[in-house]
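Hello Y.,

Per our agreement to keep a running log of every chain we model this quarter, I'm adding this entry. I've kept the format consistent with earlier entries: sequence first, then predicted structure.
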Amino acid sequence: MSEEMSEESKCERCGVSCHFTAQSTAQQQVAVWGLHCKFLRRLGEKSECSVYADRFEEAPWCHHSSEAAPKGMLRSDCPYSEGPGKTALRGADYDAQWPLLLAQVRHQVWPAWADAKDFLSELAARDPGTQWECVEREGGLVFQPEGQPPPFLIVMQTAEPERPATEETHERV
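Predicted structure for the entry above:
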C-alpha cells in the first residue's frame, strides 16, 4: 500500500473541516450543519469533495490536512488533528446551541463559495414559519429572513494559502 493510500485511510469522511463554525456557549467552534463549501457532497453518513482531485485549483480556499490541523480547522477528534479543533454537535446538544449559532450566522458575511442552497434547506427545516433568503453583500453571502436584513454585519476575512509548486500528495480533509 502506498504512503498516500495509508494517509487517505485516516480520513473518516465526516465533512466537518468543510463546514463553517460559530461559537457555542462553551466557547467551542461548532460546525454549523448545512453551512459548508459548495463542493462538499453528502453520501449517506459520509461526505466527499466533488472536486477532490483538483481541489487546490478549483477551490483555492481549501487547506491540505497538514495546514488545516495546526489552524484548528479539523474536527477536534479527527485522526489528522493536532489539538483543539471544530466540535461536531448532533441532536439535542446541537439543538440547544442552535439559537446562538443562528444569531452569529445572521450577523456575518459568508464567503461566496459557501453552499447557500444546503443552508437555506437547513433553515427551512429548523424554522418552517420563516421564509429565509440568501443575499449577496460585501462580496459574500448573508442569510436573513426575507426582507429583514441583519442590524450589522461582520465581514469574514479569508486569505488563500500560498502553496508550493510541487505538492505531490494531498490528504482528504
